[in-house]
Amino acid sequence: MLRSLVRSHFALLAAVLLAGLAMSMVEGEKEIPLTKFSQDVGGYGATMTFLYCYSCGYRKAFDDYYNIIREKYPEITIRGGNYDPSGFNMLLSKVLLVTKLLLIAALMSNYDIGRYIGNPFAGWWQWCFNNKLYASMMIFFLGNTLEAQLISSGAFEITLNDVPVWSKLETGRFPAPQEMFQIIDNHLQFANKIEPNPDFVK
């Protein structure tokens, strides 16, 4: 009897195992470490950190700032990393991930969940059941789009020696290069740690 029960609910068990695996992978994810692009030179120890929204495509903006800052202030250590969104958005994106995997697993294993989701969605699930490949692709890409929207923070946050010096979340824009140079000069002029590159062309 137990064997027949397991056999009849094999698809459901497989889906649950897949969801558990996905959750363990999500929970096991480590915080994305900061990418260190330079080392301290001459013992100055000044560090500028950029936390940006990777899913927004801000990596290129970070690369541009990295190049111009390194050109004028070659002794500054520059770090970059992904800005994590709020906890609720991260939790919701994980729920979407598990739901997406469960739906695809149910489709691929021919498990009919239409009897559990109620009449309003039974017709939609039947369509998915009849068009498994197309429906799986639709669920996958739609889920990815929603997840990206949830974790897209629009952030481009800058700190200098752990002191916040710029926030795109507050200002709504990126700093101009001259603004960035002024910020660095203002924060380091009294410390007498960093000297601009005399060969830098404004």
Automatic annotation (TrEMBL):
Signal peptide: 1-28
BP terms from Gene Ontology: cell redox homeostasis
GO CC, alphabetical: endoplasmic reticulum membrane
Signal among keywords: yes
Keyword tags: Redox-active center, Signal
GO function term, MF aspect, one: thioredoxin-disulfide reductase (NADPH) activity
Family matches, as InterPro entries: Selenoprotein_Rdx-typ, Selenoprotein_T, Thioredoxin-like_sf
Segments crossing the lipid bilayer: none
Keyword Signal applies: yes
NCBIfam families in alphabetical order: CXXU_selWTH (TIGR02174)
Stated name of the protein: Selenoprotein T
Biological source species: Anopheles funestus (African malaria mosquito)
